[in-house]
Write a structure and sequence with these properties.
The complex is a heterodimer. Helix content of chain A is 33%, strand content 29%. Chain A is α/β, with parallel strands linked by helices. In chain B, the strands form two sheets. Chain B has a six-stranded mixed sheet. Classes of the chains: A alpha/beta, B alpha/beta. At the A-B interface, helix 6, strand 12 and helix 10 of A face helix 6, helix 7 and helix 9 of B.
């Protein structure tokens, strides 16, 4: 199999902290692959190793066929990297930043304009503005253009949507979808679980380890317990009463519902309803639902 | 302005040169409410929040926070509110105990009161083993919970939380909301911003800012009814991109 990225048992520690612990995975050419997990999961350390900015303590990895240790110079020329923190030149204009990155990689804006065109149209009206004076969304688009200007084979995006509102996040994912159509391999990290559905495959990460990896539907189908969505007139009391109930496995808030799993596994609806009515709950809604990625993540965290 | 409102805002405006960041916003918050302050990036949330915290003087309009005026009594406001954001929280190179004592001191608690509070918080958060550990050695979830407890160490009537759950794992995120509920049950008013739309559902009232104005303000269930949708996410999408 011809992989764009191959990683075998890669590890990295900082003092006593194991930031990345024996992580292995492959990313196929043209795949949009998501690393999903909270701060401290090891996403940034992993990306920094794969983009040759950090040396691993152990294991091996190949990006675009090149060894991340021996062939680091070749990788630097062939990958695109958008770090989590905005790191363009604040005092250069939009156009100057883009020209600078193009020249560093020995190319021109014109040569690869097709690739960035759809994103750059948003920036065009501000092309004389200094990067430091752009809004958050515009900075993000400029950073993406700069990471793309040398037509990389593999693109690494470290938390491009963190702190971004839900509508702008969606727009960003639409841009990634278009890039993917163009054949570029994309590795992207995010703390937002709901972004899992935008990726071809995902790795769920926590504390330096991969909890699970695969297609979203396959990960979800491994969740074997029935999940119930409940609501009542008093949601806070509902949580407390369910936590105190004898056979409760888990209770988590999910927006205007909460999700409940029971140790007994099945046919618990009447029993739970009876308990809740005896506790004075009114307007009870109780339904079995399909678990989502966040249910899976929390269940894996507890294992 | 109603006597029983803990935050009262009328036509509050902030201009930077020719740019109007906050454009005549008006709303009231009741004691013990969890007030969700939502909006797209650049809608003016941060600017509005800075005015309410006494950190930025408005261009025009009126507002009182905990009974204090946002033009003339900014120091009193700062003493009577709590504040926590994802970026500003604890001193990483101080221990848990030192952080609690330091912030207790900043907020003017007496030595005895600081000691009491230290023991109370360590017990409440079940972090006895971490008492003398540096903040930087703690898991993020512990830090967030401690940061919140410290933000209300001086028992303010209002606490401002600016994206308190950004980057936090899903279990800790929910535990954090348990703490918000507990504070609200003690009649602490919570003013919170978030990009997680499920968290918008947990608020007693939600305001949606669009281009410096408040485009909608109501209980989550009323907003969903008003826009004929099932989730706060859809309400957000309809308001933030009305043309789409």
């Amino acid at each position: 199999m011809d992989y764009a990225v191959t990683v075998n048992n890669i590890s990295k520690s900082f003092d006593k902290t194991k930031a990345v612990e024996s992580v292995s995975f492959n990313v196929e050419k043209g795949e949009l692959f998501g690393f999903i997990g909270p701060d401290g999961a090891g996403k940034t350390t992993l990306f920094r190793m794969l983009t040759t900015l950090l040396l691993p303590d152990g294991g091996e990895a190949f990006v675009d066929g090149f060894d991340i240790v021996k062939d680091f110079k070749k990788i630097r020329g062939s990958v695109g990297y958008m770090p989590g923190r905005f790191s363009l030149y604040q005092d250069l204009s939009v156009e100057e930043n883009l020209k600078f990155f193009a020249r560093v990689f020995g190319t021109t804006i014109e040569a690869n304009y097709e690739l960035i065109k759809d994103i750059y149209v948003f920036l065009e009206p501000f092309r004389k503005r200094r990067a430091g004076k752009l809004s958050g969304g515009m900075k993000q688009k400029l950073a993406l253009c700069c990471a793309l200007i040398h037509k990389p084979g593999v693109l690494f995006l470290d938390e491009p949507t963190t702190g971004v509102d839900p509508v702008s996040r969606n727009e960003f994912w639409e841009m990634l979808g278009k890039l993917k159509e163009g054949g570029i391999t994309i590795l992207v990290s995010t703390p937002y679980m709901d972004e899992a559905s935008k990726c071809d495959r995902i790795a769920l990460m926590q504390k330096g380890k991969i909890l699970d990896i695969g297609f979203l539907n396959d990960i979800i189908s491994k969740y074997e317990k029935p999940v119930y969505a409940l609501r009542s007139g008093d949601m806070h009391k509902l949580i407390l009463d369910l936590r105190a109930a004898e056979n409760t496995d888990s209770v988590y808030s999910f927006g205007d519902y909460l999700h409940y799993t029971d140790r007994r596994g099945k046919a618990v609806e009447e029993d739970i309803k009876k308990i809740l009515i005896s506790k004075g709950h009114t307007d009870l809604v109780f339904k079995q639902i399909n678990p989502g990625i966040e249910d899976c993540f929390m269940s894996l965290m507890n294992k | 302005m109603g006597e029983n409102h803990i935050i009262s805002v009328k036509d509050l405006t902030k201009k930077f040169g020719s740019f109007t960041a906050v454009d005549k916003i008006s709303f009231n918050v009741l004691p013990g409410e969890i007030f969700g302050f939502l909006g797209a990036n650049g809608a003016g949330k941060t600017t509005a929040m800075r005015m309410l915290c006494g950190l930025s003087i408005p261009t025009s309009g009126k507002a009182t926070v905990a009974g204090f005026d946002v033009y003339r009594q900014t120091e009193s406001i700062k003493k009577n509110i709590g504040y926590m954001s994802q970026k500003f929280s604890l001193y990483e190179d101080l221990t848990v105990k030192e952080n609690i004592e330091f912030y207790g001191g900043v907020y003017g608690l007496s030595r005895e009161r600081r000691k009491e509070k230290t023991e109370f918080l360590i017990d409440l958060l079940k972090i006895e083993e971490a008492r003398n550990k540096l903040i930087k050695s703690l898991p993020l979830g512990w830090k967030q919970k401690l940061a919140f407890s410290i933000a209300i160490i001086h028992e303010p009537k209002i606490v401002f939380l600016d994206e308190p759950t950004g980057g936090v794992d899903p279990i800790t995120r929910r535990q954090f909301w348990d703490m918000i509920y507990e504070a609200a049950d003690r009649n602490v008013t919570v003013f919170v911003t978030t990009h997680y739309m499920d968290e918008a559902e947990y608020c007693s009232k939600v305001s949606m800012m669009v281009d410096g104005r408040i485009a909608a303000l109501d209980k989550p269930e009323k907003l969903k009814e008003q826009f004929g949708v099932g989730t706060m996410h859809e309400v957000f999408v309809k308001l933030a991109r009305p043309a789409a």
